[in-house]
Specification:
Structural class: mainly alpha
Strand order of the largest sheet: 1-2-3-4
CATH superfamily of the largest domain: MFS general substrate transporter like domains
Distance between the termini: 41 Å
CATH topology of the largest domain: Growth Hormone, Chain: A
Helix content: 55-70%
Number of helices: 16
CATH architecture of the largest domain: Up-down Bundle
Strand content: under 5%
Number of strands: 8
């Protein structure tokens, strides 16, 4: 087909023959032309699948789905919920049990065991971007989940063998609690620790591949053209996090019970069995799933934009060689699995990647990129501040997982005649999440709808903001209660007995901070997941979802680094002065540490308000052109491209 070109004027500046601004293409609103040509290859030199364009759902064979009513929807989502529930059960089961396993069985010091598990959790979450990249670039979300969930199962099986076979653990004879505290137990051999870290990180690698894909793959099951799409999507992410919560509750109760009654091998084995059953359940739903075509390597497209923009860094938009900003004709973009994205005025230096000069023929993507490709990079950059502001809530979650348990050891955990194991205490945030999600649509949405006028109760960023605000209250209350608990322990002569529970002080005072952080997690994380899925480019949604996991991983790392700094700074020169995070919680100052978290959270919240008020939601209708069809016939050159912008806190 011969090349044909057409100019579509930007809405900001209507350029006509007598327009005095016709020479001001470098003005603030970039009065540019879009040049659309058929003589353009995709960024990876590939064409389109026959009959498939934009973000059209396909079946597992990559073919268009003829009858959408037989695929996707809530039934398909249920199979995905099951997989996520088991994955979270394994994740939290390892996080709550592995520190104790390394201390009691592998005879590692408690502090190094906690740091090792924190680093494992951090690397597992931070490396989720790898799973998102593989899904968006090559395999698609289904096959990425299928492969990495199998790797996950292999890692859990290896951990079960470790806990079951005596050859993998050091000698346990004569190793009672006193010997453990004094460090007199036989340490694990180097090869035993190597095996433990190997199977542990194989498990983490499997989790990293699954985590960014499951929520996006579940959201893919709903038709974007449906009138109820936004409502379905909103409910999906709430139910998705409900499945996460159910997995966590099972891990903090049933798995802990199995470990106490039947040992470590049975506990880790139950996680492997649950993961195996969920894999079978996930594969059983294969005929029902809707898929999105992978759009090719996102890193390659990002690199092409950066290289092309750098090559033309010295070219002015007022240059006589400037023809326009380049885009493919019709509704299809150059990126498989993606709609076109309207041009925006952010990061104008990147627009030079799409700046077409007279010498450009549109065949070298390392010199000339489409507007959509440039906008993908802009979107990825614009998204970064929001998940970055959620790192702090992940720091608090990580600290609560260990510090609150240390508090619970000094408190009475009896509930009537029932004594609750200390390791079960983290179940209460899960229960508060479960309760809140159950009441979300019947209580929160109607009330907040009257306040905000938003049909969903609150916009995505409003929910993230609510979560961050409640997390501040949680950290502040933890500081208040810890000050009371420490004073009580000193007054009643428990200062040296930090492992002895105080019978008259109930551990259930911790429920307040647990419930508050649970509420914060619901609003912040669920809102963030929905925000990232909606705002990420069509062909980069797994990477967008990975942003949330990366923030979680960075939160784990930040918590470990913060602990190290606080211990170093607050430990006095004299041998008798304890650090804030002393192993003896009664002589340490955990209350000061909680208030430090409160102050850091307040600063973080202010940064979030600034970032959120500057953010503008993407226009969901993408590029809208009057009469623009694939054959480009009878199109007036003055048809505008609309680039609507939406306020952040006012609605979506």
């Amino acid at each position: 087909m011969g090349s044909k070109e057409r100019e579509i004027k930007s809405p900001e500046v209507q350029l006509g023959e007598n327009n005095s601004d016709s020479g001001k293409r470098g003005s603030k609103k970039l009065g540019i032309y879009f040049i659309e040509s058929d003589s353009r290859r995709t960024p990876l030199g590939r064409g389109y699948s026959a009959g498939v364009g934009g973000a059209t759902p396909v079946n597992i064979h990559g073919k268009p789905i003829r009858d959408m009513s037989k695929t996707g929807g809530w039934i398909a989502a249920l199979f995905i919920f099951g997989n996520e529930m088991a994955e979270r059960m394994a994740y939290f089961g390892l996080s709550v049990n592995m520190v104790a396993f390394m201390f009691y069985v592998m005879h590692r010091p408690f502090s190094s065991s906690a740091n090792a598990v924190n680093y494992f959790l951090g690397i597992s979450q931070a490396s989720s971007v790898l799973g998102g990249f593989i899904a968006d670039a090559y395999l698609g979300r289904y096959w990425t989940i299928a492969i990495f969930t199998t790797i996950y199962l292999a890692g859990l099986t290896g951990i079960t063998l470790l806990a079951t076979m005596k050859v993998f653990v050091p000698n346990q004879e004569g190793c009672d609690q006193i010997a453990l505290l004094l460090g007199n137990c036989e340490p694990a051999k180097s090869w035993q620790m190597t095996y433990l870290y190997t199977v542990l990180y194989v498990t983490g690698f499997g989790a990293a591949g699954i985590r960014p894909c499951v929520s996006s793959f579940g959201a893919d099951q709903f038709d974007e053209r449906s009138r109820n799409y936004r409502s379905h999507l909103d409910r999906f992410f709430n139910f998705f996090y409900l499945s996460v919560t159910v997995g966590a509750i099972v891990a903090f109760t049933a798995v802990v019970y199995i470990q106490i009654k039947h040992g470590w091998g049975a506990a880790f084995g139950s996680l492997a069995i649950a993961m195996g059953l969920s894999n079978m359940f996930f594969f059983a739903g294969t005929p029902l799933y809707r898929h999105r075509l992978p759009g090719g390597s996102p890193l390659t497209r990002v690199a092409q934009v950066l290289v092309a923009a750098f090559r033309k860094r010295n070219v002015s938009f007022q240059s006589s060689e400037f023809v326009g900003l380049y885009e493919l004709p019709g509704k299809r973009s150059a990126i498989k699995g993606s709609n076109k994205i309207a041009h925006t005025d952010d990061f104008r230096c990147l627009d030079k990647a799409a700046l077409q000069l007279k010498e450009d023929d549109g065949t070298n993507p390392w010199r000339l990129c489409t507007v959509t490709q440039v906008e993908e990079v802009k979107i990825l950059l614009k998204l970064i501040p929001i998940p970055s502001c959620t790192i702090m809530i992940n720091v608090i979650l990580t600290e609560f997982l260990t510090l609150s348990v240390q508090q619970a050891y000094t408190l009475n955990t009896h509930m009537g005649h029932l004594k609750l194991p200390v390791t079960c205490m983290p179940v209460f945030p899960g229960l508060s999440i479960f309760l809140l999600l159950s009441l979300y649509y019947s209580v929160f949405v109607p009330i907040s709808r009257r306040i905000t006028g938003n049909p969903h109760g609150a916009s995505q960023l409003q929910r993230v903001g609510i979560g961050l605000a409640v997390s501040i209250l949680s950290a502040a209350w933890a500081g208040v209660f810890e000050r009371y608990r420490r004073t009580y322990a000193i007054q009643h002569e428990y200062e040296a007995s930090f492992l002895t529970p105080m019978p008259d002080l109930s551990a259930y005072w911790l429920l307040i901070q647990y419930c508050l952080i649970g509420i914060a997690e619901v609003f912040c994380i669920v809102g963030l997941l929905e925000f990232l899925y909606e705002e990420a480019p069509d062909a980069m949604r797994s990477i967008g979802s990975a942003y949330a996991a990366v923030a979680g991983g960075l939160g784990c790392f930040a918590a470990s680094i913060l602990n190290t700094i606080v211990k170093s700074v607050t430990r006095g020169k004299g041998e008798r002065r304890e650090s804030w995070l002393s192993q003896n919680i009664n002589t340490g100052r955990f209350d000061y540490f909680y208030w430090l978290l409160t102050i850091m959270s307040l600063i973080n919240f202010a940064a979030f308000l600034y970032a959120a008020n500057r953010y503008q939601y993407r226009a969901k209708d993408e590029i809208q052109t009057n009469g623009l069809e694939s054959d480009h016939t009878n199109t007036n050159a003055s048809d505008p491209i609309r680039t609507p912008k939406l306020s952040v806190f006012g609605g979506e």
